[in-house]
User: Fold these one by one.
Assistant:
Number 1:
Amino acid sequence: MIDLFAQVEYAINAVLVHAAALPEYKTLKPAFPRLLGQKLERLRQLKTEAGPLRSHANGVAPLVDKLAPFEDLRHFMAHGIVEVALKQSGEPIYVFRISCTSSDGTGSTLTLTRPDAQSRTARLAGTVRALASKLDAIMDGKKNRRN
């Protein structure tokens, strides 16, 4: 899952760096969003801003919306501490814990079985491939215009 998120973040970063260099997007702050949620929001925002990326953003926005439900999962995978427990059948259960506490004083826990993790990974992979492909096409179009 982390590899999938890294793949899509790489593609997002290329588009956001390109957007930051265009005069039409100079008013967008921060120029380079840091967190994944901020980057996804910036992609959505490009759809509403007048500029050369607007038409591309229309095709990207629905995929960004499909990726958004996976943000918490990515957070757990990247920042959580994992424990592996075994069911009586021997099947592993992955328990991710985040050590920060929420406003109500409780920590966060995510529990995944292997089939659940595989199912989420498969759903995420399809969305990531489609989104990365669209983002790469934006950058390929940019390269072709320069030549």
Note: The chain has a mean pLDDT of 85.
Number 2:
Amino acid sequence: ENNININSLQAGDEQVVTQAGQRNNYEYYNYYSNENSNMQVNQEGTLNSVQVFGENSLMKDAKINQKSDFKSIVVKNYTK
């Protein structure tokens, strides 16, 4: 019952996602950004969520590791 939803209108994305556990969720939205994505997300546990909206240079080569239960990470990046 794990879920991944990636909506990106940019070529060149590289996503490596590992979800071990139950009911984990990962969503990634990146519309009209000039930055290349190279994100690695690892979630271990139950009912965890990671949501990333947009992208800027701070997210270059980002890695998110979440090892717990019932946790949520929300990252909002906006470019001008």
Note: The beta strands are 3-8, 14-22, 25-30, 38-46, 49-53, 63-67, 72-76.
